[in-house]
Structures are given as structure tokens and as C-alpha cells.
Amino acid sequence: MRLSIIIPAYNEARTVEAVVRRVLRQPVAGVEAREVIVVDDGSTDTTVRILSALALEFPREVVLLTHPVNRGKGAAVRSAVAKLTGDVAIIQDADLEYDPSEYALMLEPIIAGRADVVFGSRFSGQQAKRVLYFWHYVGNCFLTMLSNMLTNINLTDMETGFKAFRADVLKGVPLRCERFGFEPEITAKVARRGCRIYEVGISYNGRTYAQGKKITWFDGLKAVGAILRYALGD
User: Fold this and answer.
1) Cα–Cα distance list, 171 to 11, 80, 86 (Å)
2) What is the Cα–Cα distance from 182 to 78, expressed in whole angstroms?
3) How far are the Cα atoms of 20, 124, 141, 174, 181 from residue 137, in angstroms, in the given order?
4) What is the DSSP letter of 209?
5) How large is the C-alpha radius of gyration of the chain?
6) Which of the four, 21, 46, 60, 78, has the lowest number of CB atoms within 10 Å?
């Protein structure tokens, strides 16, 4: 089985090299080969320079795509999906909030043939989670509940940035959102298609705004619009 790891990156010079190197050295039972598709989404720091060096160092594993201007996570994922060659795919953020050592946990339901899509939940399981912002937690719970009400599924963490897919499922979903609306969009569309969705507890090393966190309350408002738009049939 071939594994594709999709890493959208925007101004992540502080963490992206560590993430890519950690991804490349993670052994996963049942995976014979892997590709890491990193999309530099118009970064204005040294992210693209770091990624270019990694692509030269690991020419068989690292595929670098670039956007000349910042378009958003959804656009970056779309660019990567068009290029992926794996049988299964994982979306991995370019920071260090999600741990690549948990790939086996994420992929097990897919490799076993039980799941088409797996969400890594920051709010279930016994793994360690960094304690951070109360209002982020409240907002996440609200968005997840609204999404669940309209899709009739029972996720605990719709907004998680750690998701795994059978590659044919991910390629078969027509994605439109440019930015953080990607999470509610993909959730609504795989739910409407009757995909077998599993959820596993994961660890979470959340970062602060001083450490580079980018999502804001305005993104939360746009997520509400995306939930309504895509869960109701767009």
C-alpha cells in the first residue's frame, strides 16, 4: 500500500522542516511506500526555501507544489489531491500540533477495510492534549454540533486537522472551499455520500497565537456558512 501525506503550508518556517522529517521517518505497518506532497501556499517567509531543500534531499519522497499567492488550506489540499498517487492519504498540518507517530492509529480502520474516512479527535481517547483556549473549545463544539445536526453523524471533532482517507474517496469529492471551510465541506460531502466514517482519539499539542496559530473567530463565522452551504446540498 502506498501512503500519500498532504501538508498545506503557509508561513511555517519554524516547524515545517521538523514536520516533514518526522513524517518521513515514521514506520507504518502495511505501507510499502510513501510520498509527502507539500503545498507552499504563497508563504512570505522562508518556508518555500526550506521545502525546496527538502525536495532536493528527498527527491523520491517529497513533492513540492507552490501557489504564487496565498489561497487557503482548501485550495492547497485541492492542488495536492490532483497530484497524489497513493492508495490512502493523510492530511497533516505543517505545524507540530498533530503527531505523525499516530499514523498507524489513523490508518488502521482503513487498512482493515472497515473505514473510508478517519477523523482524529482531539476530544476523545486517553492521549495527552495540551490545555489552551476555552472559547476555541466552545466554538469547536458548536461547529461540530451544527455539522452533526445537518449531516446526521456523531463526530466529536469535525474541525480536526488530522484526517485520513481512502485515496479514491478523497479524489471523488469535488472540493470548492479555498480556506478553512475545507473541514466542514469535506465532512458534509463524505457524510452525504454514505462513506464509512470512523473517529479515533489522538494527542494534541496545540500552539498559541504567539507560536503561529492562525485561525480566528472570523474563520469560525465562515465555517458556519460552509456548514450550512455544504450540508444542505451544494
Assistant:
1) 27, 10, 11
2) 10
3) 28, 13, 6, 29, 17
4) T
5) 16
6) 60
Q: To 5 degrees, how large is the angle CA 25–CA 29–CA 32? A: 70
How far is Cα 44 from Cα 1, in angstroms, rounded to an integer?
Answer: 36
Q: Which of 91-95, 124-128, 161-165 has the highest mean pLDDT?
A: 161-165
Residues 6 or more apart from 58 whose CB is under 8 A from it? 24, 36
In CATH, 2-231 is 3.10.270.10: no
For residue 182, how many other CB atoms are within 10 A of its CB? 25
Report yes or no: 195 and 114 within 8 Å, Cβ to Cβ.
Answer: no
Give the pLDDT of residue 121.
95
Q: Report CA dihedral (62, 68, 74, 78) to the nearest 10 degrees.
A: -60
Boundaries of every domain in the chain? 2-231
Per-residue model confidence as pLDDT tens digits over 198-212: 999 999 877 555 555
Least confident of 6-10, 23-27, 109-113: 23-27
Q: How many CB atoms sit inside 10 A of residue 152's CB? A: 9
Give the C-alpha separation, 78 to 75, whole Å.
5
